[in-house]
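Weekly structure sync - notes
Attendees: PM, LS, DV (DV joined late)
Agenda: review two folding runs queued last week.

Item 1: First target. Sequence and structure tokens pasted below for the record.
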Amino acid sequence: MPVTPNLEAYWMPFTGNRYFKSNPLLIETAQGMHVTTTDGKEVLDAISGLWCCNAGHCHPKIVAAIQSQATRLDYATAFQLGHPGVFELAEKLTGIAPGNLDYAFFTNSGSESVDTALKIAIAYHCARGEGQRTRLIGREKGYHGVGFGGISVGGMSPNRKMFGALLPGTDHLPHTHHLEHNAFSRGQPEWGAHLADELENIVALHDASTIAAVIVEPVAGSAGVLVPPKGYLARLREICDQNGILLIFDEVITAFGRTGRRFGADTFDVQPDLMTVAKGLTNGAVPMGAVLVDRDIYAAFMTGPEQAVEFFHGYTYSGHPLAVAAALASLAVYEDEGLYERAGQMAPVLEDAVHSLKDAPHVIDIRNMGMMAAIELEPRDGEPTLRGLEIYRRCFDAGLLVRTTGDTIALTPSLIIDENQVGQIVDIIGQVLQSIN
């Protein structure tokens, strides 16, 4: 029998610590579409780790790349020094990025990528002589990590309410999640593009000359796969252009095949000025993030003495050699194994499967985009989130790992999933929905 370690000293993130330590779920190994618990239970992973293992767990080519790198160069400072791999990765990453996102600034997570992008936006305007542009606009129900910048522009109230006033000068667009108009949409809802016009009201309130950037997720992931209405993102782009405001796409979740193409910007045909990525960048194997930057933004910093630091920002582990090795291998796997194309082919399969649960008990909405789907449930009276939490636990007991956000089940399987596994996911969820009150 496996020995359970002492669980007390670890303060777990986004977890009910007291309940977990009385009812632990511990993963020992993972391979492909499955994880295995310490007591030998195999569980189908329907959320690709945490929206990140796009090529499945422990892909042999990614594992080998990390192992090889660890024997040659374990660490190299990112300040006034470099190593060949990080420049190769920047070239490959910007080479597949849409539009003029020709530069990459490396971080260690999605949260760091967001805070970096916000700093770049404010500093860019300052470099251009518009230092009064410091205001940042996010969106209700948006999730942009857990840095102070990210939770300031984020719009999920449980992530904000404990931490005071946060950054001054932020504002928020309304969300687009309105079940009376767009419940059970397949792909992008027809209704809701006009909600982007609320940005004009925010501009009128604060004046465009004070606003640095708008940041949105192409698809709001952590809020429960909220898909943008048709035309919504293009309208945001138009208003930003009219007012000299930068548009940031937070693609920490949507990049690297999740929407059925390389990036959400490709899927929705809208070009951001800055893009944040992480998660799938290394297939989840080593922490890493990046900000992809438009060439004109980069050029605005490249002034003054040649030897001077242009942007006073960075991290000890920016471009870490092991993370770089994992990222290079991951990008190669995605291309060589046709996983972007596979995501596009499997997206209709996932769509049809999840929408088959429309008449299951407690279901009030189903939505999907690419290799993402959500099943929203009616909350129990006086007990919001508890139905979702019970489903999470029962699904795990039945051999399925899902993600619940409130009373919404989120599904984001690895891009290697097959039709039988999609069917298994939906069958287990359907059975669990029938079994709870």
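Item 2: Second target, run right after the first with the same settings.
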Amino acid sequence: MNDKNIYYSTRQTARILGLSVGTVQRMVSAGALEAYTTQGGHRRILASSVRHYCQARGVPGAGQSLAGDQVCIIHGEELTEPTLQALARMEHVVLVSHPLELTGLSEDCTTFFIDARLRWLDWPDLHRPLGWGPRARFIVYNSQSLPAEQRASVSQHAQLHAADLSAEFIAGYLLGIGAQTTPPDIQAALAH
């Protein structure tokens, strides 16, 4: 995939450049990196901008991609702010609250948690949206909110999770797939 269509989160960019999240945010504000802000207030930084920055400054890893499995959480407004903040602090987690934010995530994300309450998804025809690869796993949470017929249809393409997501649940999932080797301090993340 052309890196003109790939975007990184601020945390992913910080990991690639070996900088703090705050430094990357200041670089975006100063125009050193090209980015846009999602409706949910998250920055998405153009991968080609990161590559150009690295090449211009001789930064090692200019062509580096992110290691490990990325978990994409496609959510609506129902997730609480403390939960969103805790999830945003986790490595390997990408938060998406608007369809345009899905651009460029197909190769980075291997698991998609999708809220069944989202109105902008076409639930009757939920297959492999946007050409996401065959390796991707789909988990539809809040699946009890779907009518029984839709649940049966969606279950052919995705795993169903009846409840809402929590930071603890995602942390456990990351540990289970080996994307994280130590449990994050969820209580500290929720306290911020």
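Discussion on item 2: Strands lie at 7-9, 35-37, 43-46, 70-74, 93-96, 109-115, 137-141, 159-161.
Action: LS to circulate a short write-up before next sync.
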